[in-house]
Design brief:
9-stranded mixed sheet, 605 residues, 16 helices, 5'-nucleotidase,  domain 2
Length: 605
């Protein structure tokens, strides 16, 4: 049994806890984080018993079904959401958090902490989302102890208690459990759009203050519900007393050993560290996009301290299962192969949950999905002329009339424009970088629809910011051009950019093909030489940010920690750019990233 106590004096409630007691009951927490408006399921490729298998993964209807099963079987259960419920797919673009809130009602979280992306459209939009979460049959508190909105603003209407609460206390199995919310300060204030009057307190200071307040009132089971990232959670635990559990988000961290399925993870589930008192702290994260469900069991000793913790983070999988041939064609599994795959997955209760969707949640999702499908034809702007596709300048990837000549010396119109869109949407970026293969089609003259944007940029990529010195940018471009020319490479590696331009000479030796690199800031009137020692913020897509397509230096920069994944959908960035622009025309010649192109014979194209 659980019951809710909001931020209020607890003395009367705690009188019953003064008597001697038996072994304290365990606490069980089911949790997700960073679902980012990914309400529908997705495909995943797994290695199962030595075979490459494609399955359906996640989706909110499966998450609802899994949570409801836990409610029926688990005692002393809390259901928590560790932030970034919104932004990232068309479900948010169209419904502005309404679809997310309605699907969240189907499983009814006990608490949620706002993530940085909850502020992407400001305090007013977050206030509307919180209000939508206060339904007739389910009211989910939004908990954050380090966000202090000014009275009279959307999150703190005059004369009200405000829409955020710093903490809540839940009675779980006869024990009082304090849930303290913490929202990342740096990313929220630097990359999202909170009101200037909304004050963000340092995470550790807010946690320390709130924990002291709760313990003074006799609440000694402390759960931090955070959106600050996995590594920061571990560091935070070490400087705080009394903390028992941290349920976190923000870093999209997969915990647990998924190596049998060909997947990498970032640590054990749960991860156990020590708090300032030297007592264990159990940390749980549950990956991203409603793909995994975390289930944490916390065991206490007679003194009320954490004795141990256990649990699992499980992928929510379902049929159909299929295999793909070398040409990418899918063949559904059947017969013995299907039976073997079912047995293998069903037998792994630590990592896999074979889960059918909840029908009521699926019906609700289908209602929104149908509206989304119809929205694909929505006109978001106009292309005044054809915007031609190309990979390496002059290879003729586009077959539209006039495009071969238009792209011969400067490359793709559309990929240069996509880079412009990335830089415009990533407000901190100096430079945007996009690989040719990340853009897939011409944009014909005429109306531009949402479907056009997602055909142009069809992959599940997000915008990633990297902090790079000019010399590293130069080296990365050399790597990309080299990979684009290799027989075993891909022409899709050829680089495009916004705020950066260069000359290419394919007759030169490897590592010496790029010259004349120039940078132009957002508000600058003129181009200037790229400073090889200066630190620039470069936004790119999450694919090449991993070092793919020959962009090897980006992998090292990522390993150095000079990276921030915004988790903003890259196609959505282009949709927003088109909406803001209204009419699209080819960029001025000076804005094309390939300023001059010489072929393998050194001849100017």
């Amino acid at each position: 049994m659980t019951s809710l106590v909001l931020a209020a004096p607890l003395a009367l409630i705690l009188l019953a806890g003064c008597a001697s007691r038996q072994q304290p009951p365990d606490l069980t927490i089911a949790h997700i984080n960073d679902h980012h408006s990914h309400l529908s399921d997705a495909a995943i490729d797994l290695r199962v018993d030595g075979q490459d298998i494609r399955a359906r993964l996640g989706g909110f209807a499966r998450m609802t079904a899994a949570m409801r099963q836990l409610e029926a079987t688990e005692h002393n259960l809390l259901k928590l959401h560790a932030g970034d419920a919104t932004t990232g797919t068309l479900y948010y673009t169209l419904f502005k958090g309404g679809a997310d809130a309605d699907l969240m009602h189907t499983l009814c979280f006990d608490a949620m902490v706002p993530g940085n992306h909850e502020f992407d459209e400001g305090d007013e939009r977050l206030a509307a989302f919180i209000s939508r979460l206060q339904g007739k049959h389910c009211r989910t508190p939004m908990v954050s102890s380090n966000i202090h909105p000014q009275e009279g603003t959307p999150l703190a209407p005059a004369g009200s208690k405000g829409l955020l609460t710093p903490w809540i206390v839940k009675e779980v199995g006869g024990e009082m459990v304090g849930i303290v919310g913490l929202t990342t300060v740096g990313k929220t204030t630097a990359s999202s759009r909170p009101l200037p009057s909304t004050r963000f307190e340092h995470e550790a200071e807010a946690a320390r203050r709130t924990i002291a307040l709760l313990t003074e009132q006799g609440v000694h089971r402390i759960v931090l519900l955070t959106h600050i990232g996995y590594k920061n959670d571990a560091a935070l635990a070490a400087v705080l007393p009394e903390v028992d559990v941290i349920i976190g988000g923000d870093s999209h961290t997969l915990l647990g050993d998924f190596s049998p399925y060909g997947m990498e993870s970032s640590g054990p589930y749960p991860t156990v560290v020590k708090n300032l008192d030297g007592d264990p702290v159990c940390i749980g994260h549950a990956w991203e996009y409603a793909k995994a469900l975390g289930l944490l069991r916390v065991h206490f000793d007679n003194e009320g301290r954490v004795r141990s913790c256990s649990g699992e983070s499980r992928l929510l999988l379902d049929e159909p299962f299929s295999q793909r041939d070398a040409q990418g064609r899918e063949t559904p599994l059947s017969g013995d192969a299907l039976a073997q795959t079912r047995r293998a997955l069903a037998g792994d209760r630590q990592r896999i949950l074979l889960q059918a969707p909840d029908q009521k949640a699926q019906d609700l999702l289908s209602h929104y999905a149908e509206q989304l499908r119809r929205s694909q034809t929505e006109v978001i702007g106009t292309a005044a002329e054809v915007l031609c596709f190309e990979r390496i300048p002059g290879i003729g990837a586009s077959k539209l009339p006039g495009c071969a000549e238009a792209t011969r010396s400067r490359g793709a119109d559309i990929t240069n424009m996509v880079a412009q869109a990335f830089r415009q949407q990533a407000v901190n970026a100096d430079i945007a970088l996009q690989n040719a293969g990340g853009t897939r089609a011409d944009l014909p003259a005429g109306p531009v629809t949402v479907e056009n944007a997602y055909t142009l940029l069809p992959f599940a990529n997000t915008l990633v910011e990297l902090h790079m010195r000019g010399a590293e940018i130069h080296r990365t471009l050399e790597e990309a051009v080299d990979y684009a020319l290799r027989p075993e490479g891909s022409s899709g590696a050829y680089p495009y950019a916004a705020g950066l331009r260069w000359s290419v000479d394919l007759s030169q030796a490897t590592g010496q093909r790029i010259s004349g690199m120039e940078f132009k800031g957002r508000e600058a009137a003129q181009w200037e030489p790229l400073d090889e020692n200066r630190l620039y913020t470069v936004v790119t897509n999450s694919y090449i940010a991993q070092g793919k397509d020959g962009y090897e230096s980006l992998q090292q920069i990522r390993a150095d920690g000079r990276v921030l994944d915004t988790y903003l959908d890259y196609a959505q960035a282009f949709v927003d750019y088109v909406r803001q622009s209204g009419t699209l025309r080819r960029l001025p010649v000076e804005a094309y990233s390939t300023h001059e192109f010489r072929n393998a014979h050194g001849l100017l194209q």
